[in-house]
Amino acid sequence: MKLWKRLTGIVVSLALLSGCWDSKEIENMAYVTALGFDYVDGKYKAYAQILNFSNIAKNEGAEIGKVVPAWIGQGEGTTVSDAVNSLYATSQNRIFWGHVRTIVCSENLLKQGTKIQDVYSAVNRYREIRYNILIYGTKEPIAKIFALKSILNFSPIESILSTPDQVYKQFSIIKPIFSYKAIADSSEGTGSCILPSLSIDTGTWLEDEKEKSLLKMNGAYLLKYRKYLGWLTDEDLKGARWLQKGIDRVPINVPTDEPKANMVILNPRNDVSPIIVNGKVQYNIKVSVEAFLNELLEPLSDHNLKKETSEAIVAEIQHTFEKGLRIKSDVLNLEDSLFRSNPRKWNEIHQGKEDIFVLTKDSLHKIEVYVHIIHGGKYKAKV
Q1: Strands 250-254 and 210-224: what pairing?
Q2: Is residue 303 pLDDT above 50, yes or no?
Q3: End-to-end distance of the chain based on CA atoms, in angstroms?
Q4: What angle do CA 328, 183, 137 make, to 5 degrees?
Q5: pLDDT mean over 17-40
Q6: What positions does the domain Spore germination GerAC-like C-terminal occupy (predicted)?
Q7: How far apart are CA 135 and CA 180, in angstroms?
Q8: Band of the pLDDT at 1, cuts 50, 70, 90?
């Protein structure tokens, strides 16, 4: 009887064990953290960034700042799936896609129009990949983008490639965007998709006396109805941030050209109102902000400080609007207010065609900015 019980226990144990025979140790899998796509000579090129656990995990014995290389796979195919699947042949380990946090598209691919939709459709269809993936465009070679580390040689996970919010909360210029939002904005709606672009900066930081290459958002691509409209620099796009949600902290010189002070803007709120003037649609913009004094270069009264800050913000909005006109892009998303409040008028001026660009230099009627100064830094007086 005892022998029978022992045999039964062994059989049950083996049965349970067999269910794990095809499992894989997590340290022996290749975890993709970023995907890149290019389109050259009628073929897609796919790039996969794979990071080593020792460069990500905060182990007690880990040496902070130690350089651990990123592995970058490169594949090619006539379709997006072909290009990605070609990586399997030489990966040596099972590839896991559930930790993909970022997609980077080359400028060449973005100029192909619908190719970005093909990339998103193929990537998003795969069950392991999540919906909330950041997306960027770039003029740089994607392999170089994926090879860059963060400051102090932290992994790319700690750079703006994967965690841009760390920078955006201190310096809000170009808002990061998830891929599902980018596709929605570029496929429908009334404004344009503002797709941040990544560049490689080599002149700002030094490691000892050696220049250190780091990532930077240097502008954005404008897309509309799956078409490439153009690219604007970060300076050209400064006015768009005042009409976006989720702005955390914006330093600004007042005036911009010959600064008398530096202000930090918080919690901007905006309202865009369409009006009909002589049968034509124009737009009024109102922006209200809170601000505190960061640096005072010349004596200014409270009234003049508010006035100078307001004029600087108005100038940025006007500049961005004019830059958008040059590439036929509604960068400020003005038409959305007309579409929501008076869809009949919107359809009338668009003649039933969504891709007609109707904005002119006269479309922006008035810009009003109200500034409330909350404090003057560590000094008790505001000015």
Answers
A1: unpaired
A2: yes
A3: 93
A4: 70
A5: 74
A6: 218-377
A7: 9
A8: low
CB-CB contact of 195 with 182 (8 Å) = yes
Q: What is the DSSP letter of 172?
A: -
3-state secondary structure 328-352: CCCCCCCHHHHHHHCHHHHHHHHCC
Q: Span 239-383: which CATH code? A: 3.30.300.210
Which 3 state secondary structure label does DSSP give 211? strand
Are the C-beta atoms of residues 105 and 36 closer than 8 Å to each other? yes
Full DSSP string of 92-138: SS-EE-TT--EEEEEHHHHTTSTHHHHHHHHHHHSTTS-S--EEEEE
CA dihedral 226, 231, 232, 237 (to 10 degrees): 20
Closest to 331 in 3D by CA, of 191, 217, 163: 191
Mean pLDDT over the full length of the chain: 86
The ranges assigned to domains in the chain are 28-234, 239-383
CB 376 within 8 A of CB 292: yes
What is each CA distance from 261 to 167, 235, 241, 254, 383, in whole angstroms? 23, 19, 20, 5, 10
Pairing between β-strand 364-375 and β-strand 134-138 as defined by DSSP bridges = unpaired
Structure tokens at 362: 């006269």
Phi, psi of 222 (to 5 degrees): -105, 125
Are 246 and 175 spatial neighbours (Cβ–Cβ below 8 Å)? Answer: yes
pTM for the structure as a whole: 0.87
Maximum separation of any 2 CA atoms in the chain, in Å: 101
pLDDT score at 17: 52
**What percent of the residues of the chain are helix, what percent strand, and what percent coil, each to the nearest 5?**
30, 35, 35
Q: For 360, which DSSP code?
A: -
Query: The tokens of 242 are what?
Result: 């005042």
Instruction: State the Cα–Cα distance between residues 276 and 100, nearest whole angstrom.
Output: 47
Q: From the CA atom positions of the chain, what is the Rg in Å?
A: 26
Encoding tokens for residue 111?
């100029």
Strand order in the sheet with 250-254: 250-254, 261-277, 280-296, 364-375
Q: Which pLDDT belongs to residue 343?
A: 87
